[in-house]
Each structure stands twice: as structure tokens, then as C-alpha cells.
Design goal:
This protein has nine helices and no strands. By secondary structure, it is an all-alpha fold.
Amino acid sequence: MIASTVFFYAEAATVSSHWKTSLHVGGLVTLVAGVHYMYMREYWVQVHSSPIVYRYVDWSITVPLQMIEFNLILKAAGKDTSAGMFWKLLLGTVMMLAFGYLGEIQVLNPWMGFMGGMCGWFFILAEIFAGEAGGMAGQCSEAVATSFKNMRLIVTVGWSIYPLGYFFGYLLGSVSDDALNITYNIADFINKIAFVLSCWACAKADSVVKGYALLP
């Protein structure tokens, strides 16, 4: 995660100015995740329990930043995005994480937390597929449209690991904490780094086409 942060910040110097913010935000995603994994590692070693609080603190910072990336790449592509799109994605994120966390710490009934979290996730999917964000993506260049589709695929398929882990690990108790934590670790590694790499790919492609990339 930290190596990815170094890469994204270094690469921000090689793309045109309107793409720099996207790569800087992407670097924050991997940096925040890397720092929290240090805390999660120590918690696991010392307490021998799943670091639920640290995971949700991590997600509460990195997931909204990932949602902002949808807005940033559309803006960088020259689209006039509305504030409504941002707030819809943020609302879905808050619903998804808040219900999931409250269910896992049993402030809410675990099944109610699961269903509320799923509603938040579906709300995000509706916006990036059928909402304003999804509609604008089809009007962008091939590079931006491809990256948007890859980011959308990660949010759809990659993120499915988390509700599946909640369902089979927490609600049904059919998966051990060891296996669940390893699965979450791998999922975070792919979902965060691959997500930002999609932003980087379209930034590089767009900058080269427009002659802004700093070539060696």
C-alpha cells in the first residue's frame, strides 16, 4: 500500500494538471490503508481478535475517497458533474458502513445491519450504473470510459467480498476469523490498489493523447 502511494505521487508529476488531484486522492487511499494495516497487525498479534474497529475506521476514510474518484475523473474529462452526484455516493457510503459497523458491534440487530449495509451498497451501484455518474461515463473518451468501467467492476465484484464475509463469517459463523481476515486483506489489496490504478491508467492515456505527459 505504501509503495503504491509513492508510485501514485511520483506519477502525478507526469500527467496533465487536471489529473493530478485524482492521483493525489488515490495516493491518500493507499496511504491511509497502509497506516491502518500497521495498527490492525499489532491488534491481531496482541489481542488475537479481529480488528473490527480499525477496519471500519480505515473504510470510513478510504471508501469516501474512492467515491470522490468517480467525480474527479469525470471532471478531469471535462464533464460538468453536479454536487448531487457527490452527495448521493457519499450517502450510500455512510449507509453501507454505518449499518455494517452497528450490526457487527451489535448496537443494531446483525441482520438489520446487514440489510441496511446492502441497501447502501445497492444505492452506490445504482448511481454509478444508472445514475448521473453512469450516464456521463458513456460520453467520455475511450480511456476514461474504460477506466470508469474497471472502477465500477471493482465496486461491484470486488466489494462483494465484504458482505459475503459478513454473511458467512459473522451471521452464520461458518468461516473462521483467520480465514476471514486473510480474505479481507487480499480484497483490500486488490480493491484499493487496482481501483487507483484504473484512475492512473486513464490519466496517463489522456495526458499522452493531449501531449502533456513528461516523456523521458
